[in-house]
Amino acid sequence: RAKQRGRDTFHLFDPNHDRLLQVRHEQRQRFIDALNNHELRLYYQPQVDMRSGQVVGLEALIRWQHPEEGLLAPGQFLPTIDTTPLEVELGEWVIEQALRQLTIWQAQGIALPINVNISPTHLLVSNFSQRLDELLARHPNVPPAMLKLEVLESAAMHDIQAALQNMSRCQALGVSFAIDDFGTGFSSLTHLRQLPVSLIKIDQSFVRDMLSDQDDMAIVESVIYMANRFKRPMLAEGVETLEHAKALMALGCELAQGYGIARPMPAESLPTWLANWPSREEWNSLAEANP
Ligand code: C2E
Ligand code: MG
Ligand code: MG
Ligand code: MG
Q1: Coiled coil where (predicted)?
Q2: In terms of pLDDT, which residue wins out, 160 or 98?
Q3: 24-33, 121-130, 182-191, 205-214: least confident range
Q4: Which of 1, 23, 119, 193 is the most exposed place for a label (fewest CB within 10 A)?
Q5: Which ipTM score applies to this complex?
Q6: Ligand 1: which of 35, 48, 61, 97 to mutate, most ligand atoms within 8 Å of CB?
């Protein structure tokens, strides 16, 4: 077996490689501990309809409250579990946590759907919809329509049949899907048409520079045009300024998420944030004051 691997054989017995594997192993073990010790938490970022100012949903974003290193962003720890079974474990934990939070907020009169990010590995697991059904059954007070799953187009491209099957089954349970980071993968009209997707999220990398970079503006324009032709709602990520918001609305993109509206926040902070967010009337007079 080792012989067949040819050149890899060398690396296989390389002491540095051993050490690397050891480090990876320890990192993963540490992550399992974090899950068990409740060091992971979800932050929530509001999504707003820019026409009315209404908050239409929340995206759940994972954080690791590390006892020594402080609050870690997903980019600092998700890569260590990439394509391992831990991704499935984390994914189920996040869904469960979101369903718990939905129950709590529902009791407080806050009825906003939560979007959960699903990794490509997790989406393609064969019993995905069955497990989702079980998780939903544990939280009978939450209407499945309050849960949305954000998937990357690359996940669907990897195995379109499996993705299509899992997504259709989840949709039958009442759960809907959003395509995340749209424009960064190998997007094609065909896939958009095939997949049961009710929201298209334009990637923040295009939004960020759209006002200064003609190419990025062209991409944003095309995505909005396409999504409108397909009659799919779309949301712009990374909306940081009023200028961005205005330009996006002028192009026909009405939903937005970004630091210009709110940064991701712990669940406990949301009720106060919502109470301070302008009402519909206040929004309209703000819009008149800032044409
Ligand atoms: P994403 O799903 O595209 O999430 C949007 C990211 O953009 C978040 O970063 C958010 O904090 C950040 N963001 C929001 N508004 C702005 C803005 O105006 N400007 C800038 N510069 N950034 C903004 P975050 O929380 O670090 O998450 C990064 C990525 O990690 C997410 O990208 C998602 O792919 C992944 N991720 C987060 N939570 C989970 C999770 O629970 N499960 C899985 N599988 N992946 C997750
Ligand atoms: Mg997302
Ligand atoms: Mg995104
Ligand atoms: Mg992203």
Answers
A1: none
A2: 98
A3: 182-191
A4: 1
A5: 0.98
A6: 61
**Which residue's CA lies nearest to atom 15 of ligand 1?**
258
Closest ligand 1 atom number to CA of residue 181: 3
CA atoms within 13 A on the CB side of 127: 7
Which ligand is closest to the CA of 235, given by its number?
Answer: 3
149-185 residue pLDDT tens = 999 988 777 888 999 999 999 999 999 999 999 888 7
DSSP codes joined into one string, 73-132: PGGGTHHHHTTSTHHHHHHHHHHHHHHHHHHHHHHTT----EEEE--HHHHT-TTHHHHH
Lining ligand 1 with CB less than 6 A are 45, 61-62, 73-75, 78, 91, 94, 117, 119, 150, 180-181, 204, 237-240, 257-259, 264
> What Å distances lie between residue 281 and 35, 202, 273, 284, 287, CA to CA?
43, 28, 17, 5, 10
Amino acid at 20: L
Ligand 3 geometric centre to CA of 67 (Å): 28
Task: Indicate which ligand has the atom closest to the C-alpha of 178.
Answer: 2
**Would you state the pLDDT for residue 3?**
45
